[in-house]
Design goal:
Family: Belongs to the ABC-3 integral membrane protein family.
CATH topology: ABC transporter involved in vitamin B12 uptake, BtuC
Oligomer: single chain
Strand order of the largest sheet: 1-2
Structural class: mainly alpha
Number of helices: 13
Shape: globular
Largest sheet: 2 strands, antiparallel
Strand content: under 5%
Membrane topology: Multi-pass membrane protein
Keywords: Cell membrane, Membrane, Transmembrane, Transmembrane helix, Transport
Main location: membrane
CATH architecture: Orthogonal Bundle
Protein name: Manganese/zinc/iron transport system permease protein
Number of domains: 1
Radius of gyration: 19 Å
């Protein structure tokens, strides 16, 4: 595959994974958890490096996933103590991210751990860091990782589809039916953390947040059916990757920022043109 094709494929895989996960974040009214986790995983990466003194390896991903789960646990704990959900997310998000930044500044030294790179990403570097796969040849590590994560996300979503559908719309009913709501919540947060970790090293935290929230919010405007919403959200994520790359190429600007920009454009289009909740359709119904 060409250099450009690897970049587009990598971004499309981010769009697919984040689009699927994002639907359940929107339905659970936990969209800002994506923003929190995408930033607090930095603390997990920093601590993993401080323990092992190595920048590469599975320990980095493990540290980031643990940090994501720790974030979800602390937010849930504050809520159980009567703190509002939005306030809980804001407190934990800013505190843990700040600790990560402070540790980078004071304890890491000259190691190449860059806060700006973690936030903005640099997808143009993805095709250069490769590994050899039998039958496939040289494959970018980030692309391979994202493909594996996508398979895990799809498998887990299919395995717990009915349970997450019930817990997303009516947690009290799910609990009364004997469904382990708390366990499923942390399984879901593990998926969010895993997807975030796999994505932000290539595309940055900002695009990860955009892909997790905006395509799902756009899909929510078009349909009330969960299965259709998942397909639409994933499709919007892929379309944002393709169109975003085209915008970046034409304007000679940041690829990740352009993709995030396109997610916003698609949301505005959905907000205006959705046949049920769109601004134009509501205006027509009022005029009849």
């Amino acid at each position: 595959m060409s250099y450009t094709a690897w970049i587009i494929l990598t971004a499309a895989l981010v769009g697919l994974s984040c689009g699927l996960i994002g639907v359940f974040l929107i339905l659970r009214k936990a969209a800002m958890m994506a923003d929190a986790i995408s930033h607090t995983v930095l603390l997990g990466i920093v601590i993993a490096f401080m323990i092992t003194n190595e920048l590469n390896g599975p320990h980095m991903a493990l540290g980031a996933i643990i940090a994501g789960l720790f974030t979800a646990f602390l937010v849930q704990w504050l809520q159980s103590r009567g703190v509002q959900k939005e306030a809980s997310i804001g407190i934990i998000f800013t505190t843990l991210f700040a600790v990560g930044v402070v540790l980078i500044s004071t304890s890491i030294g000259n190691a190449h751990l860059d806060v700006r790179h973690a936030l903005m990403g640099e997808i143009t570097f993805v095709p250069w860091n490769t590994t050899t796969i039998p039958l496939l040849g040289e494959v970018p590590i980030a692309t391979l990782t994202l493909a594996i994560v996508l398979l895990i996300v799809v498998a887990v979503l299919l395995l717990f589809y009915k349970e997450w559908k019930i817990t997303s719309f009516d947690p009290a009913l799910a609990a009364s039916l004997g469904i382990p709501v708390v366990v499923l919540h942390y399984v879901f947060m593990t998926l969010v953390s895993l997807t975030t970790v796999a994505s932000f090293d290539a595309v940055g935290a900002i695009l990860v947040v955009a892909m997790l929230i905006t395509p799902a919010a756009s899909a929510y405007l078009w349909t009330d059916r969960l299965a259709v919403m998942l397909i639409l959200s994933a499709s919007f994520g892929v379309a944002s990757a393709l169109l975003g790359y085209l915008v970046a190429f034409m304007m000679d600007t940041s690829i990740s920022a352009s993709m995030a920009f396109v997610t916003g454009i698609l949301f505005v289009f959905s907000l205006l043109c959705s046949p049920t909740q769109g601004v134009f359709s509501k205006m027509r119904r009022r005029s009849v």
